[in-house]
């Protein structure tokens, strides 16, 4: 496996996997355009989710935020952002299903 994917953790790996699966699903359903848009959207969300925690690391520490609290906040924000690509993928799956007439419900 590529070492770049391993360095990003589970969020990056799942984001790349979800992008590939949604691209394949879009091709399978005959909507290559939606599959490509979904893949690029998921990859963009994956990059954004990886960059934001690192930008938070460079914020100057506040006068009252000493010790491990900033690191704890950084860890929590990074974990929450790791789910962003999967949320975007679920949204695109619904868009592709509605476009191909496979959406269930009323």
Can you give a write-up of this model?
The protein is built from four helices and no strands. It is mainly α and 106 residues long. Helix 2 (32-57) packs antiparallel against helix 3 (69-81). The radius of gyration is 17 Å and the shape is elongated. Residues 1-7 have low confidence and may be disordered.
Secondary structure elements and pairings:
Layout: H1 3-28, H2 32-57, H3 69-81, H4 84-99
Give the beta-strand count.
0
Low-confidence stretches: 1-7
How can the largest sheet be summarized? none
The H/E string reads HHHH
Mean pLDDT, to the nearest integer, reads: 79
Q: Percent range for helical residues?
A: over 70%
Q: Separation of termini?
A: 43 Å
Secondary-structure-derived class: mainly alpha
* Alpha carbon gyration radius: 17 Å
Report the sheet-strand fraction: under 5%
Shape call: elongated
- Number of helical elements: 4
Key traits:
106 residues; mainly alpha
TL;DR of this structure?
This protein is an all-alpha fold. 76% of the residues lie in helices and 0% in strands. It starts with a helix and ends in a 7-residue tail after the last helix.
